[in-house]
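Review form for a predicted model. The reviewer records the input and the model, then writes brief findings.
Reviewer: anonymous (R2)
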Amino acid sequence: MAIFRFMSLICISAGALAFLQLSTFIQESFSGGNMEIKSSAFVEGGKVPGRYVMKAIGGMNVSLPFKWENAPAGTKSFAFSIVDPHPVAKNWVHWLAIDIPALAKELKEGASGRAMPPGAKELENSYGDAGYGGPQPPKGTGDHPYVCTVYALNVEKLGLPAETSLAAFKKALEGKVLSQASITGKYGR
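Model under review:
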């Protein structure tokens, strides 16, 4: 009887281990745990070059370039955001884009307003303009972080109006994000 209990315990333990491994595999498969985003303009934590900042502070306000990879299976579209969470900026929106087709793998330099992927829609930034608005942190406030995030979604379209707030954007993403990846650049003056 003791041998039977011991063998049962081994079988249950092996089954539990197999279930945990399968659960982890399924979770990683669906979460797209290895999705990545990169920019040719800066490295993680690096400085955003001057050409991408607002004209008022000497830049050209050219939208930053990004490439992403390893989106999970089932991705039907992407959404994208650049937000400055610095305490002075209070989640200032620099770029929101939605309905980016699932086949897209990048936003090219200068794409905002000119060369977005077909079907993509740019929403208003905190400056009040549709599309990209570069960094323009107040003098003396130190480096500001610009968190650039791509979201892989399980829907083809979010269909939000141009004047959608950041809070409404985040609410619209709830339950639709299969995976996401971020890179943060910094800029101060």
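Findings: The CA atoms of residues 139 and 189 lie 5 Å apart.
Further findings: The chain has two domains: 1-31, 33-187.
Recommendation: see findings above.
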